[in-house]
Amino acid sequence: MYSGGNYGNSPPSTSTTPSISSEISLSTQSHTSTDSSPSLHRPRPPRLSRRRPTSVNTLPRNTILKIFSYLSSWELCKCAAVCHRWNELVWTPELWRHLQFTDGNVNVDCALKVVTRRLCQETPYTCLMVEKITLNRCNKLTDRGVRLIARHCAEIRYLDIVGCYLVTNHALCQIISNCHSLQYLDVSGCTNISTVSLTSEAQLTSCPHHGKVISLRHVDLSDCPLLDDSSISELVSYCRNLQTLHLRRCYRITDTAIQYITKSCLNIRELSLCDCRNITDTGVKELCKLEQNLRYLSIAKCVSITDTSVRVLAKHCTKLKYLNARGCLLITDRSLEALARYCHKLRSIDIGKCQLVTDAGISVLVANCSNLRRLSLRSCDLITERGVYAIAQCCEKIQHLNIQDVTIGSEVFRALKISCTQCIIEHTDPSLT
């Protein structure tokens, strides 16, 4: 039996053994009181809050819609598969005013079927919100996809199917017939297109004799090699409100097509006949009927055109602002003198490879066309330092000058740089800096 003191017989007393928390406190107090070194009084770094990353779904609806508005149609379709909320937001009508698929590897026919079916849920059979469709370089687009557009997107104003070479006349005619609000059509590079017309059913109700015409304003048929004069005749017979027509590299087009255009479409402001080598002076003279409306004309590489027609054109189309006559080998200073006399609003002219143009013609042109901003003299063999120096003296506001293959000295080049401070100069002489 233990007999050391009165442990067993004394009344219970409060334990003097310190608790763990008080022991830490005491040890801290003892430590701070016995050690007064200033190096131990450094402030503790603040604790980093461990907040969870903000989810995109916590953003307001309008913010997410704003983000979605920068995505293409194909990217929106991918977002629709993320979650239920995104699927609901993706199909907001405002996001589908512009249908855009530009990936050549996408099965566009299938994509159009899915999208139009979903957009037609609230407005059966019609996608009222779609105004613009861009299918540029979608090589897999066929007539099936174009017919879907004609059937369900009748309110579109803009259609771009550049390079979709599988599309044929039949599908395009359905677009023209059903989409009455269509104003912009670009089918350049659609090599199977040989006509732009209405279907036989639509022709009965849209006959020009009834006063009904197609509302197209801009048509680009460049690189459609099957087009001929009869195709243009059919186009302009219904599209009397045309303002822009591009026929680049339509090799079958002749002066007869120009006669059809000037007879039916007097509001043409922009016409491109680049590389239409069957166009002659007769066709260019026909363009004089457009008079003050014509602002843009490209006759590049129309090698049969001479001064005769250009002088007549300049006299009648005095509001011409852009002229591309590159590669017209028969044009001389006489054409430039006529342009300088009548076309004072000229802002851009390309006479590259016009090898009969000399310094005298350039001097007259730049002295009278103070609004000139772009000038190309590339490969004009008869242009010398004198002509370039005239540009430096008269065209202080010129913004782009092409003098590739034109031989000039460093002093003239320096004068050009000093005088035309805003000009981008293209040249091929490495010694000119």
Care to describe what's here?
The protein is an alpha/beta fold. 35% of the residues lie in helices and 9% in strands. Strands 1-2-3-4-5-6-7-8-9-10-11-12-13 form a 13-stranded parallel β-sheet, with no helix packed on it. Helix 12 runs parallel beside helix 13 and helix 15 runs parallel beside helix 16. The radius of gyration is 37 Å and the shape is flat. It starts with 19 loop residues before the first helix and ends in a 7-residue tail after the last strand. The N terminus is likely disordered.
User: Tell me, what's the shape?
Assistant: flat
What's the number of helices?
16
Q: What sequence of helices (H) and strands (E) makes up the elements?
A: HHHHEHEHEHEHEHEHEHEHEHEHEHEHE
- Quote the beta fraction: 5-15%
Radius of gyration: 37 Å
Residue-averaged pLDDT, rounded? 87
Percent helix, as a range, is: 25-40%
**Strands ordered across the widest β-sheet:** 1-2-3-4-5-6-7-8-9-10-11-12-13
Runs in which pLDDT lies below 50 for 5 or more consecutive residues are 1-37
Structural class: alpha/beta
Number of strands: 13
| Major sheet description | 13 strands, parallel
| Cα separation of the termini | 114 Å
